[in-house]
Amino acid sequence: MARVKRGVTAHAKHKKVYKAAKGFRGRRKNTIRTAKPAVEKALVYAFRDRKRKKRTFRALWIQRINAAVRPFGLTYSRFIDGMAKSGITVDRKVLSDLAINEPASFQAIAEKAKAALAA
After folding, report:
1. Predicted local distance difference test score (pLDDT) of residue 119
2. Rounded to the nearest 5°, which phi and psi values hold at 109?
3. Is residue 3 part of a domain?
4. Measuring CA to CA, how many Å separate 106 from each of 27, 53, 55, 81?
5. Average pLDDT value for residue range 56-63
6. CATH no. for residue 29?
7. Helix or strand holding residue 39 (H, E)
8. Distance between CA atoms of 29 and 15, rounded to whole angstroms?
9. How far apart, in whole angstroms, are the C-alpha atoms of residue 57 and residue 117?
């Protein structure tokens, strides 16, 4: 059986890890033994934080909506309840954007939600 030299494949595998470790500090960027676990850990963080990012943005939208409905004499939870009762289905991202960029249309939604709570 012929002898197999693995230099080419090993080099290619290492190259892939080094590319992912670009920008790391110290030996983590250019020594395979330290770069490999560092890259694996970075990928774990990236996966986790893609999920966390969604939570963080939702929390931000809720805070913005809460701040926007306070002048109309509502809290966030009462506002959402009023929207559900009035049959308005607009997600929090859009509501937050409306509160910032189009206060008049947000006010109309807030008034409808308030009216639905009173009825």
Report:
1. 78
2. -65, -45
3. no
4. 53, 25, 23, 16
5. 98
6. 1.10.1900.20
7. helix 32-69
8. 11
9. 27
